């Protein structure tokens, strides 16, 4: 559950974003897409809380694990200073992963900002599980919709493309992809699929989303309207990361319609569409 990982690389990959590559064989062996590691940042206050960061890629063969992170505050600033060879204390992998996409569905990945990190791991694992057949047949070939403020905030697109993922980008300023919201690009694609298929559901889709709450809600609405499954990864400030402090709660709806309180770290961060009770 805890591992002292070694920094292999920690390089800038875009405006304020860095990719951290760690040698952490135990975590790399167990990590599943959608899970996160709780990181104690080196050279940071040893009594400070850990920081939850999604696993962006894990390769059990080489024992490496990657994290894509955005510098937003003191912890991530300190992490950005960790050089090759530095030890990083990891707890995890933690949380419920995305369910593996069924073979007969087309995974539709929708991400914003560092939300692409777990989606990249999902796409890479999907390709691996399908013996890379996912990249050759349209049915299982993932399609990614990614939104950002500008082109400089779009991360990992070349790596998604190298996996054979169909990529659609949207930026606020139109500097890459279509100008506007990522959901507008998604809607246009869904409309094109329907027009080609001559019906509302030409192929079965499964949605996987990670990013800001309004984006998750928009994806959920579309999935529910189409009666298709969707899996949403929530972002919350966390303390313990393992379900004991109740510092990351989320109101949810149970199968019988009753309300309950879930812990995003232990019961999530991935929740199915229809489960989250969104705040207004
Ligand atoms: C399950 C999970 C997976 C995550 N995966 C990633 C990832 O792959 N890459 C990545 O860059 N970040 C990820 N995050 C967010 C990351 O944990 C925070 O950005 C980080 O803890 C901020 O630490 P800090 O000390 O730099 O910032 P702080 O100084 O603690 O905060 C700086 C600013 O960021 C805000 N903030 C801090 N934590 C969060 C949060 N969880 N959600 C929204 N706002 C926050 C604060 O309110 C403040 O405005 C994830 C969070 C969760 C819960
Ligand atoms: S962070 Fe402690 S219960 Fe989730």
Primary descriptors:
about 280 residues; alpha/beta; Rossmann fold; 3 domains; seven-stranded antiparallel β-sheet; seven-stranded mixed β-sheet; binds flavin-adenine dinucleotide; binds FE2/S2 (inorganic) cluster
Assign the structural class, choosing from mainly alpha, mainly beta, alpha/beta, alpha+beta, or little secondary structure: alpha/beta
The helical percent reads 25-40%
Q: Give the CATH H-level superfamily of the largest domain.
A: Nucleotide-binding domain of ferredoxin-NADP reductase (FNR) module
Coarse morphology: globular
Q: Strands across the major sheet, in which order?
A: 4-3-7-1-2-6-5
Taken in chain order, the helices and strands follow as EEHEEEEHEEHHEHEEHEHEEEHE
- CATH architecture tag of the largest domain: 3-Layer(aba) Sandwich
The number of helices is 8
| Cα Rg | 18 Å
Output the CATH class name of the largest domain: Alpha Beta
Q: Any ligands, ions or cofactors bound here, and which?
A: flavin-adenine dinucleotide, FE2/S2 (inorganic) cluster
Number of strands: 16
Please explain how this structure is put together:
With 280 residues, this protein is α/β, with parallel strands linked by helices. It has 3 domains: 2-94, Elongation Factor Tu (Ef-tu), domain 3 (Beta Barrel), CATH 2.40.30.10; 106-233, Rossmann fold, CATH 3.40.50; 236-280, Dihydroorotate dehydrogenase, electron transfer subunit (Dihydroorotate dehydrogenase B (pyrk subunit), domain 3), CATH 2.10.240.10. Helix content is 25%, strand content 33%. It is built from 8 helices and 16 strands. The strands form 3 sheets. The chain has a 7-stranded antiparallel beta sheet with strand order 4-3-7-1-2-6-5. Strands 11-10-9-8-12-13-16 form a 7-stranded mixed beta sheet, with helices on both faces. The longest helix has 16 residues, at 182-197. The chain starts with a strand and ends in an 8-residue tail after the last strand. The model has no long low-confidence stretch (mean pLDDT 91). The structure holds flavin-adenine dinucleotide and FE2/S2 (inorganic) cluster (FES).
